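Protein fold
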Amino acid sequence: MARFGEAAEPTLIKASVPKQSWPLVINTWSFTNATEKAWDILFNKRGSALDAVEQGCTVCEVEQCDGTVGYGGSPDENGETTLDAMIMDGPTHDTGAVAGLRRVKSAISVARKVMEHTVHTLLVGDQATKFALSMGFKEENLTTSVSAALHEHWISQSCQPNYWKNVVPDPTVSCGPYQPVTSKEKNFKQSVRTEGKNYNTHNHDTIGMIAIDEHGNMAGGTSTNGASHKIPGRVGDSPIPGSGAYVDQFVGGAAATGDGDIMMRFMPALIAVEGMRSGLPPSAAAEVALSRIAVYYPKYMGAVIVTNIDGEFGAACHGFDTFPYSVANTALGTVTVFSVNCFA
């Protein structure tokens, strides 16, 4: 077992662990470099949960984790990469978020500026970019050769998959431009969305992170570039408090990843925290939050990570085979990847 601060290969295990003490960091997926950075802030530097979440998620933005966080990934229908992020402070319940952020790479840091320098919660689009520039951030092109190639390939495949329905020409074989169908033309079978058809483990991810510092202060945050080939202007669940992430200083925190267009309708992070408030252990609270979604959308893909304020943690998932998530605390002794089997 490596000492704290030393690099170590993450360990993959399929288990939960008993209640742990502070500090703690937990995040979605096997984004262990992000976990390591957050843990360094919490343990070695004895820093705040807010700093740990911001700097941990920033690692994924810089490393372009899975091509689904940060610049150069998930181009929209116009070929542009835009960013969504949020950060939430447990002790104050203050929250800052950005959505559809254009031409600025440091999405979660801009979100923190929204929290700390405005009384607003969410800024969007070009106005969020203008705010970021006023806060000293640099304007940069978020397109790379990789994201440009993804967009060109999508066009060559007749723009498949896409996120349109009840339009003409037929969006399953055409790139548009689209017009709404008239009531005379409407195919009611087409109007029923087949959830999950546009999503897989490679075209959408979010880093969602929850941290508890040595003083017991909690923070949570998310960062993503959204769904590949999304309709321009689309905002997913990640920057929405209670959906992408949620923390309650007296209960615990949760973060979600998956089919954001569906998951944001059910506020799974909030529901998971409320489940813990009612006495459920973290994994059970996560499963309850996801089960509610499955009643309406039995084929959706999603996962939730959860920790209570005592540092007991867990996760649940739906629509994948398994779901990995990364944890560091004093008991584990190193960044550890856990894996949970998904239901349905």
